[in-house]
Every structure is written in C-alpha cells, then in structure tokens.
Design brief:
The chain is α/β, with parallel strands linked by helices. It contains ten helices and seven strands. It has a single domain, classed as Type I PLP-dependent aspartate aminotransferase-like (Major domain) (Aspartate Aminotransferase, domain 2), CATH 3.40.640. About 40% of the residues lie in helices and about 15% in strands. The chain has a seven-stranded mixed sheet, sandwiched between helices. The N and C termini lie far apart (about 45 Å).
C-alpha cells in the first residue's frame, strides 16, 4: 500500500455498530458493562477509546510499526518514554534538540538519578566513546529543532546495537514525518511525534504519539499511557489528526518545492 493510500485507509475500518465509513467521535468517558469486568473491550475512556484506537492504528501503519500509542502532547509522549528508565540509567541525546525535550530531561528526570550525555550524534566516534553498560536510551532528533541538522539514523542504530543490545533507540520524527523517513525501518525501537506539527498541520491541536514494533515494549507504553493518563480526547484524535493528516503528502511536497526554490535563490540568484 502506497503512503498516500495508507494515510486515508490504513487502520481505518467502517464502524462495526453502524457501518459508518468515517470513524465516529466516541465522546464518552465510560462504557456499559454487563457485570464488573464484563464488557465489549472498552471500560473507561482513559484506558481505551475507539476513536483514539483508529488514530493509533493509522499512525502505526504510516511508520511501518505495529503499535501506536497516543498522548495529549509530544512532551507527554516523551515523558512516557523516559519513564521506561530507572535510577542509574543513562541517556545519550543529540546536543541540538527541541528546548522542551532538553528541559524535560534536565529539569525533571535528571534529579531522579538519570544521567544525561548531550553529544553530536553526527560524530559516530564520540557516540562510540560515550556508550557504556549503563546506557539505556539513545535520543535521536532528526532533523533537529531548531538547526535542522540531519543525523544518520541507521548508522547510529548499528553502532548502538553493536555495543549495547539493552539500549533503546528513540527517534523524534516530528520534523521529517513518516512521509520522508521511517526510523523503525532503519533500526530504531521507537518513533515519537509531536503531532502538533506536521501530522496535525493546521496549528489547531496539541497531540503526541509513539510508534513501536516490539510487543513487550508496546505493553509497557500502553501501561504508562493508562497509568499516567495523559491521553488525547476523541475530538482531537478525529478532527485534527484522522482528518487533517490526509493532507500530509501535499504539505511535504510543497515544503520540498520551497526548499528547492530557497537553494536556487541562495546559490544561483545571489
């Protein structure tokens, strides 16, 4: 299935109760149960919501993953990733990254015993020297915010897996979107999005997502999604993402055209 078709159809099926082609907005907090614990797969909207499930399945398909986990913001998604760690674990992160990501690591998680290393991930020799037995997470943001530096995802993944098979690699794919790169195909364990940006596209929502392939990792993240409760509402999941992201191909093609024109202006006309 080509990308443009995935955006519209992957993970999106007619509503089983009515046959509606478009996903309904399930604006409910709870679901009827025949008896305590006896239900139709849904018991409480923080835990499961059919509208959110459709968005999660669709995003997973776009990233060539198997499980999508959505959150109320990109930082809420990152918070869940960092909660996979324990005191004494170490993070290696690119040194050019979104300020909110740096703040969350430095101001919130460092005081709980997480050791941080901010390095140039374009320099594989430095990465190799920094990885140790306590390295638990590699945080790759590419292209970076704000400098738009590009990191070789596959090269980083190969180096990390060669030195420490217990380390997880998470790629913040916000600026590229799955239209331009799919980090799971390059060896990453997790892909994170601030869907507020390219996936949402209209500057009218705040939403985050993680996509993975590995079942046990997905279970841990679903647990944190439910236990912490930073979930998006069904309105955001439907109107702003299920519908809005249909335009992601057009946005990226226009952006690519603008880049070509900018390069032409800088190097030819000036």
């Amino acid at each position: 299935m080509k990308f443009a078709t995935k955006v519209i159809h992957a993970g999106i099926v007619p509503d089983p109760s009515t046959g509606a082609v478009m996903t309904p907005i399930y604006q409910t907090s709870t679901y009827v149960q025949q008896a305590p614990g006896v239900h139709q797969g849904y018991e409480y909207a923080r835990t499961q919501n059919p509208t959110r499930n459709v968005l999660q399945d669709n995003l997973a398909a776009l990233e060539n993953g198997t499980h999508g986990i959505c959150f109320a913001s990109g930082l809420a998604a990152m918070d869940a990733v960092l909660k996979l760690l324990n005191p004494g674990d170490e993070i290696i992160s690119t040194n050019d990254l979104y300020g909110g990501s740096y703040r969350l690591m430095r101001r919130v998680f460092e005081k709980y015993g997480i050791k941080l290393h901010f390095i140039d991930l374009q320099d594989i020799a430095t990465l190799k020297a920094t990885i140790n037995d306590n390295t638990r997470l590699i945080w790759v943001e590419t292209p970076t915010n704000p400098m738009l530096n590009v990191i070789d995802i596959q090269l980083v993944c190969e180096q990390v897996k060669a030195q420490n098979t217990n380390a997880l690699i998470c790629v913040d794919n916000t600026f590229a979107s799955p239209y331009l790169q799919t980090p799971l195909d390059l060896g990453a364990d997790m892909v994170l999005h601030s869907a507020t940006k390219y996936i949402g596209g209209h500057s009218d929502l705040v939403l985050g997502a993680i996509v993975v392939k590995e079942e046990n990792l997905a279970k841990e993240l679903y647990f944190l999604q439910n236990a912490v409760g930073a979930v998006p509402g069904p309105q955001d999941c439907f109107w702003r993402c299920v519908v809005s992201k249909r335009y992601i191909c057009a946005w990226n093609e226009l952006a690519k055209m603008q880049r070509v024109l900018l390069i032409f202006w800088r190097h030819i006309l000036r």
